[in-house]
Amino acid sequence: MSVTTLQNHIAGSYCDAHGAQRLDLVDPATEQVYARIPLSDATDLDAAYAAAARAFPIWREATPAERQLALFRIADAMESRADEFADLESQDTGKPRATLVADEIAQSVDQLRFFAGAARNLEGRAAGEYLAGHTSYVRREPIGVIGQVTPWNYPLNMAVWKIAPALAAGNTVVLKPAESTPQSTLLLAEIVAAHTPAGVLNVVLGARETGAALVGHPAAQMVAITGSVRAGMAVAASAASDLKRVHLELGGKAPAIVFDDAALPAAAEAIVAAAFFNAGQDCTAATRVLVHESVHDEFVRMLVARTASHARTGGPHEEGVFFGPLSSAAQLAQVQGFVERLPGHARIETGGRRHGASGYFFEPTIVSGMRQDDEAVQDEIFGPVLTVQAFSGDDEALALANGVRYALAASVFTRDHSRAMRFTRDLDFGCVWVNTHIPFVSDMPHGGFKHSGYGKDLSQYGFEDYTRLKHVMSAW
Q1: For residue 402, what are the domain limits?
Q2: What is the pLDDT of residue 341?
Q3: Burial class (CB within 10 angstroms; exposed 0-12, middle 13-18, buried 19+) of 198
Q4: Which member of 89, 179, 249, 464 is catalytic?
Q5: Residue 15 designated active-site
Q6: Residue 298 is a catalytic residue
Q7: Which residues of the chain have pLDDT under 70?
């Protein structure tokens, strides 16, 4: 297999990086090297930010209708080239090729079209006389040049989540994709460049050091990342030194609470899908099942049976595969470490082992007998591992659910409407599902509390995060 070296995409075209160091890209399904990326340095970032700064006054002057049309055209181009995106995304991540077009790429197209609509919905308070002889109104404006960092679990989706609202609002962007999954983002940059002024979107490749330099660059008026809690804290600290705006979408440890009155087969089906989709590498994945003690054993059996029949792992081109490999050798080692360190009171109901002799595959794993202070309950595994705990009543269920540092997503399964309403109020998470887990739409906000970060992706709220407010007062 020939090994190609990828390039940065700056000011509307590909260009070689100034930095001489390179990093291999490894296919997670085969462990074979197929490409290399540059580790971009300060000179590369200066060039990218300079291009974004030059483009900003041009792009902010575009009318909302012009920005909307550009985003519609980008969405149409992505849709027409969906197979290319799927091939690149599958190679970078090992995800099942058959599902990418219908799921993640279709979602990205829809999200671009949603924010195209949002571009023409810049809202402010109505003009009025709040002081005698003076008229006031509010302008909602773009912030400027935005620095963004995206993760490896959903490379294309997360790039769209970041750039679509930023561009719709009139900002320009310098973005660093995860070092292991850059290809779909580079193709997206090509498409954006065909429909916007040069420099509106710039993609710079590199690893952690490049990301830190991107966040700390003085030209960025705002930084936005999706990543780990550790990365989010580092970004917040860096941004604080320059008073940059910060948008953080970080980790999760989502509980799925199952009551004894729930439709148990449907709950098992929803939870297994939400736990093992994308190999559990999802910050909203169902990672902790909290089940009423009276149906605990029955429900565990249902989870195991559903996993055996519907949660098969395998290579990206195999038929009947629900999820692919973990993203990297390091991620595989992390998941294996959590399982190896399980306490003696834990019981592995299914899985718990690496799958196959090559590739970073791990079996879908269910572990019962867990306690609230166990490492696997408290810390984000980010793999296909589902823990199960029993509870005896509503108050205990709520305490167990909220008793972690993450607060991104949760779900409750019950036929009792009053109970469902109480739990949607009292669960301390940015998204709460009732009798389902993990579906989302472009129209509704995504984002958490506590160590899951702050700021919203998607929806009109996500769009507003990329704007600033200005009060204008005129004397009569």
Answers
A1: 254-441
A2: 98
A3: middle
A4: 249
A5: no
A6: no
A7: 1
